[in-house]
Amino acid sequence: MPSLRLGSIAPDFEAETTAGPIKFHDWIGSSWAILFSHPGDFTPVCTTELGEVARRANDFAKRNVKLIGISANGLKDHNKWVEDINEFGAKYGPTDVQFPIIADEDRKISTLYDMLDEQDATNRDAKGLPFTIRTVFVVDPKKVIRLTISYPASTGRNFDEILRVIDSLQLGDKHKVTTPVNWKKGDDVIVHPAVSNDEAKVLFPEVTFHKQPYLRTTPLKVE
């Protein structure tokens, strides 16, 4: 199976989820989507992650991003686990998991997206089958994979960073810009290398031309 790279079309699939059956591409529709995997239900790091995502649901919705989790357990476990996530998450703020979680007991989707753990011998079920690592796929409305990040099972994800990259991707799609190191929404951006200096002056009246001819920065006001 060819590896999934940035620019690949996200493989379509059908799945049972806590919100009912879905066909992945149809479920995405005209939105962006985040597919993120979890080693297993009733595990401590995953519980903190899903609670955080639930509390940040409005941040993703404002960016037209749908969320869908996946782990190698069935729907019965998923639904019971959601109760735990909401209860524990309430220690940090109102927590209500509304996004779907895919049941992937046979690892079919995890294999399709190459999410299974080949490193941690402890990240396996009672039968010795590997659980997933903490993989993130950001998929755009054209069903193109725009970001992949893989964390080991032992390390919780940084969803501030994931939101930051989504902001950068969406900004770059709308304007002819790229974003520099440690960029945050509201910071100056870099004019895309494909834009000529003359075009840059028109598109970005406040552009700064630096000594290095390939570096041109500009403020960019966005909503």
From TrEMBL:
The protein here is known as Thioredoxin-like protein
